[in-house]
Amino acid sequence: MRAAVDVAAAEFGGLDILVNNAGVFPSGPLDEVTLEDVDRTLAIHARSVFIAAQTAAAHMTDGGRIINIGSCLIERLPGPGMTLYAMSKSALKGLTKGLARDLGPRGITAVVVDPGPTDTDMNPAEGPAADYLRGFIAVGHYGHAQDVAGMVAYPGRSWWSPRQRKLCPGGRRVRRVSPS
């Protein structure tokens, strides 16, 4: 991770923005979750995001942006079997608050975008759980990559607040959270 960020910074002469978008979806009964599942999931959802942000901050220009892609499932779980996923994505909320405090004096803002069900290879709109999940989406259909990209591009350009959280779960709600 460090090497990839360092190479990008060298290639472009620094960094203005970092978007952390990585994910796996471990699911199943709590008593079947292994320590290997926990370690792998935390390595992808939390550790790699921390390392990328830490490395990028060293190359980032004042006024830069760090945008972390989370999940609306940190607020509401529609059913059992998602404990590990929700816990690991919840780490991004605390990380983003910390980044805002650490990097705010440089004008670098940190944002978490928490999308709802989005049509991806990991969560296809016609997959086995799709009809069930659509029942929780106010607009009645999955989002698309460009919907999430729009939420990323907007705060990436113009947010004043040093740390925000954006929910985009298909019409459920979008709100700012306090800096505490």
UniProtKB/TrEMBL annotation:
Pfam families hit by this protein = adh_short_C2
Can you tell which superkingdom this protein's organism belongs to? Bacteria
Annotated TM spans: none
Keywords from UniProt, A to Z, are: Oxidoreductase
**Is-annotated flag, keyword Oxidoreductase?**
yes
Q: Which Gene3D superfamilies match?
A: NAD(P)-binding Rossmann-like Domain
Query: What GO molecular-function term can you cite, just one?
Result: oxidoreductase activity
Q: Which family does it belong to?
A: Belongs to the short-chain dehydrogenases/reductases (SDR) family.
Q: What is this protein called?
A: Short chain dehydrogenase
- Which organism encodes this protein? Kibdelosporangium aridum
What are the leading ranks of the lineage? Answer: Bacteria, Bacillati, Actinomycetota, Actinomycetes, Pseudonocardiales
